[in-house]
Specification:
Helices cover about 50% and strands about 15% of the residues. The protein contains 14 helices and 11 strands. By secondary structure, it is an alpha/beta fold. It folds into 2 domains: about 20-210, Rossmann fold (3-Layer(aba) Sandwich), CATH 3.40.50.300; about 225-325, Orthogonal Bundle (Helicase, Ruva Protein, domain 3), CATH 1.10.8. It has helices spanning about 1-15, 20-30, 35-45, 60-70, 85-90, 125-135, 170-175, 190-200, 210-225, 230-245, 260-280, 285-295, 305-310, 315-325, and strands spanning about 50-55, 75-80, 90-95, 100-105, 115, 140, 145, 155-160, 175-180, 255-260, 300-305.
């Protein structure tokens, strides 16, 4: 096993050189927001969709657009609105009078990177149409199903403060997002850099530093990164403690309506592998699990009214899990 880990480590060091190049390219357009950029990179390296939550004006759209440019990937931004129709997303069938047949007109979903801006503003039919694409990597128009080309990634934004005219995402769809990344305000120095850059400089032209083939190869390498059995047991303990906290000595009775599903265990493992890759390692450590844990778990734990009455959030519950579960 040691020789296998050493071989993976060598490959990560040689094939993961592009990571710094991508961060540098995105950094030319976006000041700070390292957590958001890393979250998007974790999604790219695992094929997991990412939900970005933050108030307007925090460069969410700019960051996603810059990341797509650094990859040379097809990019589409879709502004979700209450009058959006599934056909506006997926496409439709158009009748050709010359041939007497229906021909497909594919929608913007047929791209590599989709930015679903303000995703919670679209009604249920649009959400369900997007759900098939996210989960099955395919789109059905009429009687024909069309596969979506890899890499395919949905990066969605959500405004946490304005709820008028919004449709809360169904739990089944929220669970399809591998990560929920909270986007915060920049610090004073970063905001000054933003001010200077916007006022004094023209927008930079970003270069593609990672090909589609190289990204797919990196995904295969991420799958091979070694996870020790003790790390797997640690991940299982974290997830199962969110369902049955009393079994792990946690005093959270009545605060959790339901805990994380087995999908959380899978995504925690995949995200931890990708985080190790970003750090140039061919093996996962407990610190990798801790680093990605909140983003994987925060939207998968439903708190009760009792928890809300005590001003507790799912973030507080996740913090309790990591504070209490013993690290291997």
């Amino acid at each position: 096993m040691d020789s296998q880990v050493k071989e993976i480590q060598a490959r990560v060091e040689s094939e993961g050189a592009f990571v710094q190049d991508v961060f540098e390219q995105v950094g030319r357009a976006v000041v700070g927001q390292r957590t958001m950029v890393e979250g998007l990179m974790l999604g790219l390296l695992t094929g997991g969709h990412v939900l970005l939550e933050g108030v307007p004006g925090l460069a969410k759209t700019l960051t996603v657009r810059s990341l797509a440019a650094s990859l040379g990937a097809d990019f589409q931004r879709i502004q979700f609105t209450p009058d959006l129709l599934p056909a506006d997303l997926l496409g439709t069938l158009i009748f050709d009078q010359r041939t007497g047949e229906f021909t497909p007109k594919k929608g913007p979903i047929f791209s590599h990177i989709i930015l679903a801006d303000e995703i919670n503003r679209a009604p249920a039919k649009v959400q369900s149409a997007l759900l098939e694409a996210m989960q099955e990597l395919q789109v059905t128009l009429g009687e024909t199903t069309y596969p979506l080309e890899e890499p395919f990634l949905v990066l969605a934004t959500q405004n946490p403060i304005e709820q008028e005219g919004t449709y809360p995402l169904p739990e089944a769809q929220v669970d399809r997002f591998m990560l929920k990344v909270l986007v915060g305000y920049p610090d004073r120095a970063e905001e000054r850099a933003i001010l200077d850059r916007i006022v004094e400089e023209d927008p930079p032209r970003l270069e593609a530093v990672l090909s589609r083939e190289a990204l797919l190869s990196a995904r295969e390498l991420v799958r091979l990164i070694y996870v020790d059995d003790k790390i797997k047991e640690y991940i299982l303990d974290l997830v199962r403690a969110s369902r049955d906290p009393q079994d792990f000595g946690l005093s959270l009775a009545g605060l959790i309506n339901y805990g994380a599903s087995p999908r959380a265990s899978i995504y925690l493992t995949r995200a931890a592998k990708a985080h190790a890759f970003l750090r140039g390692r061919g093996f996962v450590t407990p610190e990798d699990v801790k680093a990605v844990g909140p983003a994987v778990l925060r939207h998968r734990i439903a708190i009760s009214y009792e928890a809300e009455a005590e001003d507790l959030t799912s973030e507080d519950i996740v913090r309790s899990l990591f504070d209490h579960i013993e690290v291997p």
